[in-house]
Amino acid sequence: MAPNVTRRTVLKGAGVTAGAFALSPLLGNVASAAVDPRTATRRRLVVIDMGGGNDGLNMVVPRTGNNRQIYQNVRPTIQQPVDSLLPLDRGGQDDGSLGFHGALKTLHALYRQDRVAVVQGVDYPNHSYSHFTSNDIWQAGNPDNIADAGWLGRHLDRTGVAIGELRAVGIGGTLAHALRGRVHSGSQVNSLNETHFADGTSALANARHAVYERFANHTALEPSRHAYGQMCSGVVSLDNATRGLTAPAPGGLANLLLTARTLLTGDLGVEVVFVTTGGYDTHANQVNAQNTLFTELDQALEAFFLGTKNGVPVTVGGSAGNGLPAPVGTPVVAGTPIGPLPDALAAQTLVMTFSEFGRRIGENASGTDHGAAAPMLMVGPPAGASPVSLVPGLHGDHPYMGSTALPADNLAMTTDLRSVYQAVLTKWINDPGSDRPDEGDPGFRLTGTDLEADGSLAGLFASA
Amino acid sequence: MPDLATRADVSRLYGRAAFGATRADLDTWQGQPYDAVVDALFPPGPPGTIGRLPQIDEVEQISQESQTQDVYAAIRWWLERMLETPYPLEERMTLFWHDHFATAFLGEPDVGMLMLQNRTLRQHALGSFRSLANAMTTDAAMLYWLNGIANRVDGVNENYAREFLELFTLGVVPQVYTETDIREAAKAFTGFLVNTSTRTFQFVPTRHDASVKTVLGRRVGGHLPGSPQEALEYQEVTEAALAHDGGKTASRFLAYKLVQQFGYPVTPADATTDVLIQDVAWAIRAGDKWDLRKGVRTLLTHPKWRYADPAAGKRLVRSPVETVVHAAKVLGFPKTNVYGSLYWPQQIQFMLERAGQVPFLPPNVGGWQSGLGWLSQTTNLGRYDVLSVLAQYLHNLALQYALPLPASGDLDGWAVYMGLASFSTNTKLRLQQYLADPQTLDEVQKQLSMFVLVGTSPDWQVM
User: Fold this and answer.
1) Across chain B, which distance is largest between two alpha carbons, in Å?
2) B427 and B280 belong to one structural domain
3) Taking CB atoms and an 8 Å limit, are A24 and B425 in contact across chains?
4) Hey, is A353 helix, strand or coil?
5) Which value, in Å, is the radius of gyration of the alpha carbons in chain B?
6) Would you call B384 helix, strand, or coil by DSSP?
7) Low-confidence ranges of chain B (pLDDT < 70)
8) Residue A19 predicted with pLDDT over 50
9) How many structural domains compose chain B?
């Protein structure tokens, strides 16, 4: 069952949003929102930024061997017991020597369905231990210039964005650096309750909004004012584009991923969603904090892919509304379960995580301080569903942890983040059948033994 | 010929440094010597004069209110203070330092600690940066926020030490400290706990690492355990940071942040080339005084700050908090005390959240965005909604609190009312088009719309 999404095109046809456009003939033409007709076949990318520096070593945890011994020695308080871990045991490199944190149950179930890839030891040269520098490097995809445009923004620059098209959307926080291109930038949606003007849609309000939209015409000779004016026009576009959309809100990170899902399901042209979450800066009280964080991450994935939370169907439209209690005395009306991610969309959608850094191998007392390389998680389409598939299992080498006598201090890079981004751009997002293909980022054309000619990490994706 | 302030000077000076001009501010200061206008913004007397600080019973009151209302009582308290203070520059600098030493309410232990931190920030806002930095190292809310209370000799926690060097004193462009400096500074910061009833720090020698450390090439610590020197060892880290490269590194970093927040978009790399940053930095570090009053006065009287770059126009995007406070100031909301005041609509908190800035809730230790970083569809909508909610609120109160609004068609009157010297070509054209729209006949509604539209115009939002 699809969520309660109304096609924007229908709304526009019905004249619901016509007010802002029709009431003010004096004001000239408004650029109408455009949807790429190929949206329906476009592959999609959902990126989750686990802000704060996620401790990869407690997310994908050594279960056996020397690494397990080192892990136990240097983490007396915060180690995850072997029997709590969910083993990565698909065979080959996935020999059960690693396991997911026990809270990542849905992720593990997806792993057993051959839908999950774990890219190990991801980082960049000359690692920075600063949240802000490192996060900027990850979002720009450029270790040499943290102020560079975002890696997904540059993708938008290469492919173009039609006026009003919601090709890339950021959810949570402020507009992510990754979505800021030199020319084009993504839009920002924090929830679908927050994209509409508080003063409503009366004739008076619509007349105001029509003027507000035209602040976009401010002279480009004043670039800051011009940029502000452009955003005013973006507000009106977003208001129009998201009319009638409702996302269920079971709480936590799941709210953001279900907002993403609603936008992807709607016929809005959305190709890239960037979700910002935080709280991973576990300097202290790490065991409890991580249980909460990973439970929330797993429930968000469960809601996004399966349409349930803790096994209970997530619904939309009932008297429980968007997770809010019904007023006293209201008859209980069951909502409509949103169900699993529709097959067609599941076949097109890749979810991946990153964090600005992993954490130190050894604990400080009850937590860990800033570290370096860490794994990225990826969840792809069901086996056989897509002509391009994510190759499940472990990719890249596990970083060296030292010896029991002399444990390493930090995990060193085994996979350059740029090779992962390039693979995502050229193998996954790039659709040769599209009118706007993206053949990758010139800055990502690295060379190396595990890399393809264009710099992509080899073997991450496969074509049918 | 004295250097007299034009109406545009007053509008931009107040807009960028004092939560915005009112019509009265423009009328009072236009034609006065520019330096005198700047000097009048500085509070009299020594920094942190006690009468200007929130009193302890006020802290208790707000803290208790906030226990049941989340942090809303504290937010409202501060917004009201920004609105009512006779010393708006001091208040604006307090907000600047709240962003610099960004500390968010975590739900525990209580809002009172943040209120006391706010008091400390105000006390040093235009005083000595050296004193401010030392006060923050031992601030109770900060000790919770960056795990200072978890930092002890047998479990060194680097969180505060790293941010102290990176975000609070030296910056990272170029990064002059090493990972070893951070680990050494963290050891020097061991030993603090917080007394939750008094909301003050205490130094516990048994938790302190008594060894000799080296931070940025300087010897730190190694004092007799239990000695008074050991209890003040944290100040040696401040001295090591301030002394780096003759004070240039820290003073340029602080000046860069001041220019970024009060002037125009700059990057940290501009700190070695931008004349304004150089001059402000010199004023701050001169005589090893770290005198913030001198630094800020240098900023506000500098020609490069006073006049917009003719090639690039006005470039400072107002913060959401400045938007709310200036709007309320323009509307002339009545003065009141914190108890029983009724006039801030509760939605303001949510609009501010959407616009991207809620006091006491910065997104992380790096503080808020600035410049164009403020802008997205969501945050711009928040800015719009702040103004339309205030306008509607006034309408519901039958305008009884509003100063007389200009007639809707009096464009010059609207510029003056909103604290602008004039309108840009496009904004003027758009406002005229609105007024010509046949759908909007009611004069009061037109006036409220003019308030919203002028307030959301590029002219008003970007100073």
Assistant:
1) 82
2) no
3) no
4) strand
5) 23
6) helix
7) 1, 50, 66-70, 333-345, 397-403, 440
8) no
9) 2
Query: Within 13 Å of residue A259, how many CA atoms lie on the same side as its CB?
Result: 25
Cβ-defined contact of B312 to A224 (cutoff 8 Å): yes
Q: Within this chain, do residues B298 and B169 fall inside the same structural domain, yes or no?
A: yes
Give the amino acid at B54: P
Of residues A303, A331, A304, A305, the one with CA closest to residue A318: A331
Range of the domain at B260: 128-310
**The pLDDT of residue B69:** 58
Q: Identify whether B95 is part of a domain.
A: no
Q: How far apart are CA B177 and CA B180, in angstroms?
A: 8
DSSP state of B327: H
Q: Which of A23, A190, A197 sits opposite B439 (nearest CB)?
A: A23
Token pair 């964080």 in the structure block, residue: A293
Query: Cβ(B229)–Cβ(B222) under 8 Å?
Result: no
Nearest in space to A51 (alpha carbons), one of A364, A282, A362: A282
Where a domain ends, among B265, B288, B310? Answer: B310
Q: Is residue B187 part of a domain?
A: yes
Size (chain B), residues: 463
Q: Please tell me whether the overall predicted TM-score, pTM, comes out greater than 0.80 for this model.
A: yes
Distance from CA of A298 to the nearest CA of B (A): 23
- A407, burial (CB in 10 Å: exposed 0-12, middle 13-18, buried 19+): middle
Min Cα–Cα distance to chain A from B279, Å: 25
Whole-complex ipTM = 0.94
- The 10 Å CB-count burial string (b at 16+, else e) for B131-166 is bbbbbbbbbbbbbbbbbbbbbbeebbbbbbbbbbbb
Name the residue facing B150 among A221, A226, A366 (closest C-beta).
Answer: A366
Q: A184 with A153: CB under 8 angstroms?
A: yes
Interface contact B147-A367, CB threshold 8 A: yes
From residue B304, how far is each of A248, B92, B281, B342 by CA, in Å? 51, 20, 14, 42
**Could you tell me if B161 and B233 lie in one domain?**
yes
Cα(B452)–Cα(B185) distance, rounded to whole angstroms? 50
Both tokens assigned to A31 = 């650029």
- Give yes or no for residue A14 having a pLDDT over 80: no
Size of interface A-B (CB pairs under 8 A): 210
Task: State the DSSP code for B218.
Answer: E
pLDDT of the residue at A22: 27
**Shared domain check, B281 and B165:** yes
- Distance from C-alpha of B124 to C-alpha of B98, rounded to nearest angstrom: 12
